[in-house]
Amino acid sequence: MRLTCPYCHSNATLAPNPAYERRAAVPLYVLDCTGCSQTTVRHENQEHLVAALVGKRHGNGSHELTVSADAIGHTSFHTDPTGRTTPSIGYSELLEYVTCRISAADTFSLMLHTVEMGTRYLSPEGGVPYQAVRGWVVTNGEIHALSGQEVWEASCRGSESGLPLDPEAGIHYVDADDIPRPYPW
Ligand SMILES: [Zn+2]
Q1: How many domains does the chain have?
Q2: pLDDT digits 0-9 by tens, 9-25
């Protein structure tokens, strides 16, 4: 696949790493960049990031992460209650951007919109999906967890993000988990 190099923003291509078939410790993908000599995208870092954001909420959930920087991007993934601690995700250019830019001291925000179904949320009327929104702000290489109140205020200001953030719509604005240093990416 073609992508923008997460290191230097030149045109690059990403291909499955043939060595991965033989040895799981090597990167799953290799990068071929026209502008720099980086060859690795840290796909496993993306999974670490997603696991940190989702935290212990490994219910049967679907999640959409919105990254707001100069431009706004979305990516979606899913967790299920199989006991895996790391959600399985495909390669995401957006998540690669996030894991690279946290250490580069860029400023952006992360909003995680989670919809959970399942027996935890059964009501007398049947299964009612539980919807929650959590947020973090990344600045100076640090991830700061926002409180539910801060996320609600940011959401009301930032309704152009396209998320269905009407407080009347049954969405819970909840405190985000702290993501302590050292970050695993
Ligand atoms: Zn590059």
Answers
A1: 2
A2: 888 888 877 776 666 66
